[in-house]
Design a protein that fits this description.
By secondary structure, this protein is α+β, with helices and mostly antiparallel strands. The chain has one domain. The chain has one helix at residues 14-25; strands spanning 7-10, 30-33. It has a two-stranded parallel sheet. Strand 1 (7-10), helix 1 and strand 2 form a beta-alpha-beta unit. The protein is flat, with a radius of gyration of 13 Å. The protein starts with 6 loop residues before the first strand and ends in a 19-residue tail after the last strand. The relative contact order is 0.24.
């Protein structure tokens, strides 16, 4: 299997998805890889601030 992309992001959590979105908005070819086929049944982040 051959795949061409400019950036590969490992992890489809909030950080990986945010980075993928920002790069895609800048016309950069992005691939987000996630090992789970569904979201986990619990939330890993309790709160998020601008400084996080």
């Amino acid at each position: 299997m051959s795949l061409k992309t400019e950036v590969a992001i490992s992890g489809g959590g909030i950080g990986g998805l945010t980075l993928g979105l920002k790069l895609a908005q800048s016309n950069i070819d992005v691939l987000v890889l996630e090992r789970l086929d569904a979201h986990p049944p619990f939330i890993k982040v309790n709160s998020c601030s601008q400084r996080a």
